[in-house]
Amino acid sequence: MKPIIFALPGNESLAKNIANAIHAEEGQVIIREFPDGETYIRVLSDVKNRKIVLVCTLIDPNKKMLPLYFLSKTIKSLGAMSVCLVTPYLSYMRQDKVFISGEGVTSEYFASLISGFVDKLITIDPHLHRRKNMNEIYTIPSEILHTSLLISSYIRKHIKDPILIGPDVESKQWVSVIAEKANAPFIILEKTRHGDKNVSVTFPSIEKFKDHTPVLVDDIISTARTMIETVKHLKKTNMKPPVCIGVHAVFSDNSYESLKDSGVGQIITCNTIEHESNKIDITKLIAKKL
Amino acid sequence: MKPIIFALPGNESLAKNIANAIHAEEGQVIIREFPDGETYIRVLSDVKNRKIVLVCTLIDPNKKMLPLYFLSKTIKSLGAMSVCLVTPYLSYMRQDKVFISGEGVTSEYFASLISGFVDKLITIDPHLHRRKNMNEIYTIPSEILHTSLLISSYIRKHIKDPILIGPDVESKQWVSVIAEKANAPFIILEKTRHGDKNVSVTFPSIEKFKDHTPVLVDDIISTARTMIETVKHLKKTNMKPPVCIGVHAVFSDNSYESLKDSGVGQIITCNTIEHESNKIDITKLIAKKL
Predict the structure, then answer these.
(1) Which one of A226, A249, B125, B197 is separated from B20 by 20 to 30 angstroms, measured CA to CA?
(2) Burial of A1 by CB count in 10 Å (0-12 exposed, 13-18 middle, 19+ buried)?
(3) How much of chain B exceeds pLDDT 90, in percent?
(4) Using only C-alpha atoms, what is the Rg of chain B?
């Protein structure tokens, strides 16, 4: 029997697309706020003995946590067989160790919370960084999906003579895969982070790629500082305006506008977070796993 | 050894007052937001083997939950002996049963979450309603403090010839105690709720209290509809403008302004939630328990 697909507020369109792709039922639920800011939940679908999928991308996670937790608990109280969380963007992956004494390792605490109220997790290109896999922090089964094939296919179809540019050493493994599948060369920059919003990049020579279109790829575009810094360097080379591709369109504050104004050709993202730059659809990637 | 008193954001002034009242150390912590909305926590105080108190009133609870949870987890990771949550206003107490099938009993889910990461709870006049005590939902020890003595003492000191008015049958037990300690008569209204923001009240005859000052008392002033409705009725009686006293100054949307404009004499609340109407200080009530 197919799962019932529930959308948390803001995820309606992706949930609908996933449900359509696998011909599954869309979950009916009322989620609203009381005048004092508390959340009211009422599940209308019959979830008894059914597999349930909750779709909730976790950008801006703090205010989403209780509604998500309440919905899962309510569905379980109604006798559902299992609850799987599909979270295309998984937050709290960055603080994965104690850098300065006294710091909270929020990635562990967050994982422990999630693991306590859903039975399975599916996410897309999480920012694993110093961890090898999700089960170092998540005690529930988790599945990681990758957008690299979708991105390389997009590049092959839409960008002539691309040269891929990865922002830092960490990105090498990932960018090299996309480059290979896109039949394109790549280079990797060296990034130094001076704070949340302040980064500098060291640029290798790209003389021989002068006639290529630079394609900057990163997993998360948040403050966009790295990309903006890179675009600035590229401007001096007289190459074509670069295409910026990100998996997760976090775009904090006015970073999207700043990136647009920096001299890029195009900004392309996957729809793991709903945003006007979304051009690469992840629906089928998720649908295949359900 | 005395506990260390930590304030969650927005609770600094109450935490400081409590620490001063019991000559305890104030906890030093950095809690800030990353550009993408995630929370960063760093505890600066040495909490090892110490009793810890977290002060966090839970109005607008959704966005406060993760920072509170992270702080408690971080403090425990640093070897604290115990973590006690002082939450002057405890949220998610109202949805305490399934009224219509499919509803989530958020008061239970919320209690289970809190019980999972702190060791003890202290709160003030929680809206227990259909429950007799906190341990029906909270699995950790909890302590309930009451403001009735503070309120009756305020009434005795500041209001001449008061007649206390309780909004509904539930309030009788509580209003009668305040009235007795304030040496004042009281009456109880009958309230019918037609929705989150829509209530009507039935008014008994108060002819014989014509020269008294009406004092409306309620535990939570949220939409203030009950009070506004009552003030309207009172206007017709030619009594003095009523004094409205609430424990918890929730005041959703523009309800404070509406109540002010309805023809009240004064609006008085306890500082369980920081608000300009706060006149009754709960510091000592809490300090006595620590």
Answers:
(1) B125
(2) exposed
(3) 79
(4) 20
Interface of A with B in 121-140 (CB under 8 A): none
HSE-up of A171 (CA within 13 Å, CB side)?
Answer: 24
**Nearest-CB residue to A69 (from B105, B109, B250):** B109
Q: Among B40, B43, B63, select the one facing A95 at the smallest CB separation.
A: B40
Is the CB of A36 less than 8 angstroms away from the CB of B91?
yes
Compute the average pLDDT of residues A36-65.
Answer: 97
- As a whole number, mean pLDDT of residues B222-234 equals 91
- Nearest Cβ partner for A38 among B69, B91, B100: B91
> What pLDDT, in 10s, does the model give residues A178-207?
999 999 999 998 877 777 767 777 777 777
Strands (E), chain A: 4-7, 25-26, 29-33, 39-43, 51-55, 82-87, 120-124, 142-145, 162-166, 186-188, 190-195, 198-202, 213-221, 243-249, 266-270, 278-280
Question: Which chain B residues are closer than 8 Å to A253 by Cβ?
Answer: 35
d(CA B242, CA B232): 10
Contact between residue B224 and residue B261 where contact means Cβ atoms under 8 Å apart: no
Q: Which residues contact B100 (CB under 8 A, 6 or more apart)?
A: A42
CA distances to A160, B69, B195, B226, B262 from B199, in Å:
66, 36, 7, 6, 15
Contact A1/B at CB under 8 A: no
Q: Do A109 and B67 touch (CB under 8 A)?
A: no
Q: Which of B122, B165, A256 is CA-nearest to residue A244?
A: A256
**Which pTM value belongs to this model?**
0.93
What is the distance in angstroms between the Cα of A206 and the nearest Cα belonging to chain B? 32
Q: Are strands B190-195 and B198-202 parallel, antiparallel or unpaired?
A: antiparallel
> Using CB atoms and an 8 Å cut-off, which of residues 170-209 of chain B contact chain A?
196-197
Task: Give me the pLDDT at residue A236, please.
Answer: 84
Determine what percent of chain A is predicted with pLDDT higher than 70. Answer: 99
**Range list of H helices, A78-161:** 106-115, 148-158
| B76, amino acid identity | K
Mean pLDDT, chain B, rounded, equals 93
Rounded to the nearest angstrom, the minimum Cα separation between A126 and chain B is: 15
